[in-house]
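1st attempt posting a full record on here, be nice pls
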Amino acid sequence: MSQYTHQLTPLIGNLADGLTTASQTAWEALDASQRGAANEAIGTLLPVMEQLETFTALCRTILALHRIRDGGAL
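the predicted structure (as tokens):
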């Protein structure tokens, strides 16, 4: 494994873990909604919104690091 891959792998792992957690939380919100607990469903989703913003930034960072490494433009 190259040094470059070694540096990106944990970032991509963090992204995958975070998205898995966000997905699980969304499923919990769906369960609450299906039970008729709309307020609980929305309350469950609120943290997901912030998490998705963080994951979007992490994904952009990963892609930027890749482009910089390859000498490409951002």
